[in-house]
Structure formats: structure tokens, C-alpha cells
Amino acid sequence: MSRYGVEERAGPHSPEYRLFFKDAAGRYISPFHDIPIYADAGKNVFNMVVEVPRWTNAKMEISTKEPLNPIKQDVKKGKLRFVANVFPHKGYIWNYGAIPQTWEDPGHKDENTGCCGDNDPIDVCEIGSKVCSRGEVIQVKVLGTLALIDEGETDWKVIAINVEDPEADSYNDIEDVRRMKPGYLEATVDWFRRYKVPDGKPENQFAFNGEFKGKDFTLDVIKSTHEHWKALITKKTDRGEINCTNLTVSDSPFCCSQDCAKATVDAAPPCKAASPIPPEVDKWFYYQKN
């Protein structure tokens, strides 16, 4: 049985939609701040909050600037965001989400990439066979990472696999992905390089010439972002617009009561049926690679 649950407010594919999180006792929590980074620290198994199930297009993300940090659909220029299908890809090609209690600090210049963080929890691409659900909290083994440079910011993309995947024991580092899922890493680079082109933006760039870094390097990156999160949640660094409301971090000045958390959820619109996905979301986009 899952240790976490979710509660939907408003309808999916609407600007008001929010997905709030609860612990096993039914208490409201923040998926950003209250779900521990580690599922098993001794084995380097991490919790992952699934924001976008594989094959779907809606750009859902933890809302870092709202109380309790529910998942919502990103909005750009007044329109809900759906990622384009850049041929031959359909939607997201992994289960996509974030590791809780991490933060890519926009005030910290990464020594490896020379760029500052993107102000979000660290992103994860989970490569297992199961298509996860939005809001699902799974436990993952970290295998490697790609360093995307997104509009001048460092945006790590951690490659991981669900520990419950039937083949999880066969994956221990990034080279295992290359060996057992030929073409998947190359497709991942291609996806991140081109996914914003249909929106009129240039191709994305990468540190390390688009090469993946291995498990040990990735663990160090994740631990660094966890230290940045600790400074954020204890008010030892400038948080900007980040909302640090939490219910479990005892040394945080942003800790709030369950009554306060419940009031936040109760203020959101009631749950209703999903709005239809615009038909153009299913289109394939073709263009000549550079």
C-alpha cells in the first residue's frame, strides 16, 4: 500500500486544476518539502514524485510558488502547456517527475556546467516498463544524469528506474541503460534538444557535449541539491518566490499546522470532470534536424 495519497481539485486540463498530497494518515503535506528525499538512504534509493506519466503531453509540475506545492499544469502566455510531439516521439518518453527535498539554487553557479540552477526540484526520467500515475510516489535507483542547459540555466535530468520494475536488479549504472535499452539514451538527448522548437525556440544545449554522467557523479549532484534545499527550508538562503510551507520539517520557520494546510485545500475549487484535451495536442511535428 502506498504511503502517500492525492486529492484532486478542479478538473484536469484546466488552469484551476490542482493535485494535493496526503500522507498515510490522510494529513495534507507538501510533495516538495515533506516527502523525504530517501526511501532507503543506505541503498541510495530515492523517492520520486511522478508529475507526468509516460506518453502523455500535459506539462504538469509541482507548483513551487504555491502553499503545499500541489501539482498543476504549467501555463505560458495564458495557455495551458502541452509538449509537442516532435517526430518520432509521442509525449514524454519516460515517467517524468522530481526528487523531493532537492532544489537547484538559481543563486549557485554549478562548477561543472558554469550555469546557475533553474529554481526547481531536480528532475527525474524514470525508464521502467510501468506507466505510472500522476501524483504517484515511487522509489527509484539512480543510474546517471544529463546536464541540460535550458535558457542559460542548469537543469539536470536524472535517469532512474523504479525499484519494483522486474528488470531493476539488472540496472546499476548508465552503461546498463545503453546496453539493455539501445537507443533510449540517444532518444532522450534528442527529445530534450528539440522539444521547444515547435514553440519557436532554438534547440536546447547541453553541458558535457550531451554525454551522460554515471551513477556516482549523479549521486553527488543530488546530494548537493539536497543541501541547497536544506538552506532554503531553514531560511538560510534567499527563497525568492518559492513557497516553503511544510508540516514536518521541525527546524523550518515555515512549518504550519494541519488546520492551516486543510484551509489551503478547502479554498481550492471542488473536483470535477477533466476538460477535453485540444485535438492539436496529438499532432506530430516534423522538421529537419540541425
Can you give a write-up of this model?
There is one protein chain. This protein has 290 residues and is α+β, with helices and mostly antiparallel strands. The protein has 4 helices and 16 strands. It has helices spanning 174-180, 184-194, 215-233, 258-266; strands at 4-9, 18-23, 28-29, 38-40, 45-52, 60-62, 71-73, 75-76, 79-80, 85-86, 95-98, 123-126, 137-150, 153-162, 205-206, 284-285. The strands form 5 sheets. A 5-stranded mixed barrel has the order 5-11-12-14-13. It has a 3-stranded antiparallel beta sheet with strand order 1-2-3, with helices on one face. A two-stranded antiparallel ribbon has the order 6-7. The longest helix has 19 residues, at 215-233. The radius of gyration is 18 Å and the shape is globular. The mean pLDDT is 96.
Q: Report the span from N to C terminus.
A: 47 Å
* Rg value: 18 Å
Q: Helix count? A: 4
How many E strands?
16
With strands numbered from the N-terminus, the spatial order across the biggest sheet is 5-11-12-14-13
Q: Outline the low-pLDDT stretches.
A: none
| Order of helical and strand elements | EEEEEEEEEEEEEEHHEHHE
Fraction of residues in helices?
Answer: 10-25%
Largest sheet: 5 strands, mixed, barrel
What's the overall geometry? globular
Classify the beta-strand content into a percent band.
Answer: 25-35%
Kindly name the structural category.
alpha+beta
Please state the oligomeric state of the protein chains shown.
single chain
> Mean of residue pLDDT?
96
